[in-house]
Every structure is written in structure tokens, then in C-alpha cells.
Amino acid sequence: MTDHTLSSPQPKQTRRLPQINPVYFILAALIVAIILNNPNFVEPSGYMNFLKRAAPLAILAAGQVYVIVSGGFDLSVGSLITLVVVGSSMLSNNDPSSTWWVICVMLGIGLGVGLVNGLVVCFLKVPSLIATLGMMITLNGIAFMWSGGAPRGYLPESFRYFGRFNIRDVPLIQMLPVAVIVMAVVGFALYWLMHRTNLGRMIHAVGDNPRAAQLAGVPINRVRVSAFVISSLSAVIAGILLGGFGGVSTDVGTGYELQAITAAVLGGAQLLGGRGSVPAAIAGALTLTAIFTLLNFLGLPQPVRQVVQGLILIAAVALAMYRRKRTGQ
Amino acid sequence: MTQTPVIEMKGIGKRFPGVVALHDVSFACQRGEVHALVGENGAGKSTLIKILSGVYQPDDGDVLVEGKPVRFRHPVDALAAGISVIYQEFSLLPERTVTQNIFLGREITRNWMLDDEAMRTETQRVLDMFGAGSRIDPDALVSELDVASQQMVEIAKAISLNARVLVMDEPTAALNESECRELFEIVDKLRDHGTAVIYITHRMREVTRLADRVTVLKDGEVAARFDHVPEPSAIVHAMVGRDIADFYAPFATADEIGATVLSVQGGGNSALRNIDFELKAGEILGFAGIQGAGRVALAMAMFGARPFDTGTMMLAGEKVHFTHPRQAIRAGIGLLPGDRKGEGLTLMQSVRDNGMLSPRAFGSLVGSHKKNDFTDVSGMDGLLDRMEVKAASYDQEIKLLSGGNQQKAIVARWLALKPKVLIFIEPTRGIDVNAKAGIYHLMRDLARAGAGIIMISSDLPEVIGAADRILVMREGTIVAEHKAGASETAIMLDATGETEVAA
After folding, report:
1. CATH code of domain A54-326
2. Of B224, B217, B242, which is closest to residue B51 (Cα–Cα)?
3. To probe the interface with A, which of B326, B333, B349 has the most A CB atoms within 10 Å?
4. H helices of A70-177, where?
5. Mean pLDDT highest for which of B243-247, B467-471, B494-498?
6. CA distance readout (Å), B360 to B281, B323, B371, B372
7. Rounded to whole angstroms, how far apart are CA atoms A237 and A106?
8. Is the pLDDT of residue B434 over 70?
9. Helices and strands: H and E segment counts in chain B
């Protein structure tokens, strides 16, 4: 019957202007609000530190978008971050020369976690929400066991370089944190993979209609597993940056999985799959960080952040649903 | 026939946006009779039943129960008036017992507690009423029962609701021969108890076996009404007797038909048996049959989605066995699913992305989305242009396109891969007349270009008009072959198993 509806006369669809994702407007508005509260923000030390602080979440959100667009969730990324920080500290044992092989081991762990997540979802048919929730609890436990419950002070300086170091005396911008470079490189790579390759288009197709994708010849299991692996690897990179930010503890990554999902949804990623954008998810991460920054300026206590984050998540999804309904899905 | 019918529908009309589903349909059913309601897919049977059961409200006409006009606003109203419908998809909860299902939502209580004993006794009584008491344990989980028993539970549920009118929508679709016989006996018993049974079916032998009266629907109108059971051929004629529009492409000439490109010998699996046929390059091979005859199962077996367990399949001279669609596609088979939205399209993606889906699936994972071994973006746009896909832009979401244009985008997906065999399942379902003609000509063009085309359709005139050769399937196997332009009656008789009746 729908087809008849479609062929019957209806207001001609005007060729829409290239639509700009609303998240960019929200981000711009928030930055203006921050500047009004704190004029120093326009200085490089202001905005660069902001970007640096946002970098781990931005990378995490860019990875999370892969899983969301493919039709799932990845809740294991927060505890993977914790495991990366705790594990790196245990393995490196304050030896600065260990940094490179430790990072390789961590990427290996990320690859393994992503593979297990993906294979459990694809072949054991466990819904991704449950599969990655189980992984989240497991990884948290492993991190605790590994550290013996008492993680030590700080990672070696050479490891903390990525999260902590600022390159000074850069023309025009004076300082450039390494974390921001990492964010830009990873962000671009994930953008390219999602929006410029066959894999990216297939992730969209699988999240949109897995049955149709399968009958069209898409290797849906390979595609889904790839999405989980990418998300896990992005969590490892986020963990390496966060290890540079502060001390080693077993709650470094706590709550990051939900922040990443919130950021991706703020960027317009569609829950249950089929639509989403890496740049918009990064913008979503910056937006979330900007909101937290603003709440800080306003002197609101930490618990308020959680309340706000929860409300934003609900509001963003409700808004997306409303927009879709209005455009006639 | 002087008594007041237990239900009567008078001058029923129902319109959906852009289509008249029912026009001036009248229908009545007496106590203690089985009234067969027959018609092709899309003739309006389901709409009529949904009006009777309160799912839809009619735009015109009246529904009368025992001669009094009623207006059902909700299926619960119809249930309360004693009208129960057993749909093809059962409405039972699999992880509940038979008793729990029968009393779902109206459990007997005593002192605020469930009275399990009373419910079990009543269930047993109802099951015994039609001789199913020994076969079905009231405490068995529904998921443990076979399909036929589940259907009996549905019937028992209706009886325990004191149904005066029982509608059965193609009840034998999932039953085997002996289960069918049991069902017929149950229907006989219901009739003896004074229940009015409305029996929807495609199968002539069921009409002959069961019905007291027959009403034939076609294109939303009553095409014929019989107060006795006529010869099956008379019913079939009333069902299909429409003009065949001449918008089909010409048939293949002898020299257009080439060598055998695909053949199956002794193919079988849980839904199929003894499948033997050959498909030649350059021909359109039509598959006719009623729903559940195994046509789609055969397509999915050839495509590797539900593989053959037995038999051999040859593709272009080589023995093949596909267990996954990817293998079949790589070997040169394409398939257009019958459920376009559910199995064909990725609705949120663009027209072009839908066309590029299969070519991309066989390219390198990190290869550019704009170009692969099979085609590139401009090549895809060229294909879409050639098929005259009407879209404001190929970047537009495909869900905004009409059904015919959506179908063409799926065809484009396969054209880019240049398949040896292309299987069309219900290629014109739900698309308008002009778009249909476009699809027929497209299929013919592909055949002329050397592909073997398989066309599975429930629209009989379409199969006759478009296919060079027609295979008829029934109960999981191929039962007959007809030449191009065979008569609808002859095919329908094969499809329904009434071969002994002269066409």
C-alpha cells in the first residue's frame, strides 16, 4: 500500500540544501558561552588545553560510531581504558624504555577484546549490549586482579608523552599538545575508513538491514567484527592518552563508555544502526566536554555532570526521533 | 436458507490511500455451514476478514451479527460477539502451557488466586470435544507441540471463547497430508456443533472436501458466489478470469535461447524434494505455485541462503554447492528478494549506495567506496540512468522512491556484477502498472544479453505473460511444466493439485 501512497501526488520534495548537522551549531554556541565566561579561552593555552582534554573522548566516540552504525553498542571501552592504564603500569614497571613494546601489547589486547566482542555477537548471537556489558565487567575484574587492587603512582614519562606533552613554540598557535595531534590523526583515519571505503559503506548497510546486506553478498560477520575491533583499538589509544593525563587507578575509564555513546548520539548517530558520522561524533565529544567545562566554570559540583549527561543523552535521542518522524519515516 | 445468517456483511467498501481494497462486497455465513472464501493473493480476502474481526473499520457497508448491525472498533469487540479468527501466524505464546494459552487474559480465579484445576478441566473438555484430548496434554508447553497441534490449540481457544463464527485463514498452509485430514475432521465436527466456519484457501481440493458454499473474490469485488460447490475449474476460472494486458515483452525466439546455464538434479532439503530442472541462457523461466509450494525455498537453496541437502547443481558446466549467498554471487547468481523492504533494501542509504552494495561487498575492505573491480560511481549512475530510475538525485535516501524505482536500484546492484543467472522473486509486488511493464522489459533485455532468468511470482497472468517456460511447484517439488502462454486454468489446476479435472 505504501507504494501507492508514494506514487500518488504529493508535495514535491524540494531539493534540500546540504544539511548541516545541528551538533556543530550546538558546539559553536557552547564555545561562545565558554568564551563569555572565560575570555582566556581564545588564547592557545585555553582552547588547546580544551582540545587536549577532549581528545580521549573524541577518539573513543569516533570508534564507538563504528559499532553504533553497524547496529550495536560497545560498553566495554571504559573498562578497556582502565585495563590499558593499569596494565601498562604493571608491564612497564617504571622502565622508560618499555613504552613501545607495552603500547604494542596494549594494541594487541585491544585487538583481542574487539575480536571476542565481535565473535560473541556474531556467532553466539548474544546481543551486543549484553556481550560488551559482560566484557566490561570481565575487563574491570582483570584490571583489579592484575594490579592486585593497589595500582602504583604514575606511568613512566616516556609513556605519558602522548597524553601530557605539549610541543612549544609552534608558529601561530604557540603550543600544540601531542594528544591533539593523536586525535587529529586517529580522527582522520577513522573518518576515511568510515566514509571513504567499502568497509564503511558496508557497516552502514549491515546496521541498516542485515538481512538485505547478507543477501546482497556483504560478509556481515566480518564487517561486524571489524566494527568491534575498531572500537576496541580506539579505546586503547584513548587509554594511552588518559594514562598520560593523571595517575594510575582502577577507575580511570569508569563512565567513558556511556560518554562515548552520548557523544556519538549527539553527533546524530542512529541507535540500532544505519546512520552516523565520525566527524559529527567527534563534534559530539567536544560538545560534551564543552558542557562539562561550562558546568565547571559555573561552579557546579561533579554529580551535576552526571545528571546533565543523562538528560543530554535522552534529549538527543528524543530530538532525533522527533526529527525523523517529522521528515516522515 | 431462510434463517438469519449468524454474520452478514453488506456492501462492504474499504479504501486505502491510492487503492480500493474492497468494493461493494457482500458475504454471509449461516450456523453450521462451512463457507469457503477463495481468491488470488491481493484479491481482498484478508482485508475482508480484518473488517469482520474489527482490525479495520469499513468505509462503506454494514456488518450484521444475527441480523443486528454492529460496529467493531477493536478486535476485542468482535471476540465478544463470538467471532474468532485463526490467522496463519499463530498468536500462541510458545513458553506457556496449552491451558495458559487458552485462558490468556481471562484466567479463572478463586479467592484472588488462579484456579489452575478449573482451567485445566475446561481445557480438557474443549479438547475432547473435537477429539484432540488424547493428543494434546493441557499442561504441555506450546513450543513442544507440532504445528498441527498448535493449530488445534488455536481452535480450542476459539471454542472456549464460545465462538459462533470461526475464520480460518489458509489453515493447511503448514500442515502435511495426514494433519490436513485431521483438520478436516475437526472442521466437520465444528460444523456439526453449529459453528459457522469461514474457510479461506487457495486449494481446490479443500473447497471440494469441506465447503457448503463458495464466494470468490477478485480485485476487491465478489467475482462469483456459489450456493453449492461447483466444479473446481469453475472456481478457478472465476479467480483468474481477467484480461491479460499486453504490456509484456515478446517471448524469446528459438535462436535467442542458448546452452544450459544452470541445472538441478534431485535437489532437496527440509522444504524441497526431487527438484529437477534446467535453465538455459537467454530464457525467462517462470515458477508458479501457491504460497508455501516451495518456490522461494528453491530460490534460497540455489542462492545458498538455505542450501540443498541432497542432489547436485551445475552452474555453467561446473558442479557447485553453495552454503552461503556470497559463494553463489561470486559464482554468478543474483537474487532479487520478494520482500523488498525487509530483504532487499537498506532504506536509510542512498539510491547509489543501494546499487553499489554488492559490487562493494566483493571489493577490498579498505578500497575506495567510489570504485571497485566491477564498477565505479559513474558506471553505477549510468546503469541507473539506463533503467530510468526516477529520483531527485541518486544521493537521495532510497526510502523516498516508489516501489518500481527501488526495485530497479536492486537490479542495478546485480547488473554491475554481470551474473549468469538472475532470480527475481515477486519482482512486481506492490508496484504500479507502468513500472511493472518496465520490469518485464528489463528482464527480457537481460535474457537477450545472455543471462538465464528465473522469475518466481504469485501473479499468475504475469508469469504467463513474461516467462518463456513455466514450471509449476506444489508441496516442495516441481509437478508440471507448461509452455509460454499456457492457460491460467491449467496452471492453477496443477498448482492446487486438481490435475484430474479437465481445464
Report:
1. 1.10.3470
2. B217
3. B349
4. 77-92, 99-123, 128-147, 157-164
5. B467-471
6. 26, 21, 8, 7
7. 9
8. no
9. 16, 22
Closest CB to B364 among A193, A195, A198: A198
CA distance B377 to B384: 11
Kindly tell me if the per-residue pLDDT of B178 is higher than 80. no
Tell me the pLDDT of chain B averaged across its residues.
Answer: 88
Q: What does pTM read for this prediction?
A: 0.76
**Matching residue, cell 556470497:** B326
DSSP 3-state percent helix, strand, coil across chain A (nearest 5) = 75, 5, 25
Among A232, A18, A206, A3, smallest CA distance to A116 is for A232
Q: How confident is the model at residue B428 (pLDDT cuts 50, 70, 90)?
A: confident
pLDDT of residue A13: 43
Greater confidence, B497 or A277?
A277
pLDDT category of residue B172 using cuts at 50, 70 and 90: confident
Q: Which CATH code of 2.60.120.10, 3.90.1150.10, 1.10.10.10, 3.40.50.300 fits the domain covering B258-332+419-496? A: 3.40.50.300
Asked whether this chain's domains B7-240 and B258-332+419-496 adopt the same fold, the reply is: yes
Architecture label for domain B7-240: 3-Layer(aba) Sandwich (3.40)
Q: Rounded distance, CA B164 to CA A319, Å?
A: 49
Q: Who contacts B80 (Cβ-Cβ below 8 Å, separation ≥6)?
A: none
Higher pLDDT, A168 or A227: A227
Query: Do A215 and B366 count as a contact with CB atoms less than 8 A apart?
Result: no
Which of A217, A235, A310 shows the shortest CA–CA distance to A62?
A235
So where are chain B's domains? 7-240, 258-332+419-496
- Which whole-number Å values give the CA distances from B486 to B460, B481, B503, in the listed order? 10, 10, 11
Count interface pairs A-B at CB distance under 8 A: 129
| Option in B345, B358, B392 nearest A15 (CB) | B392
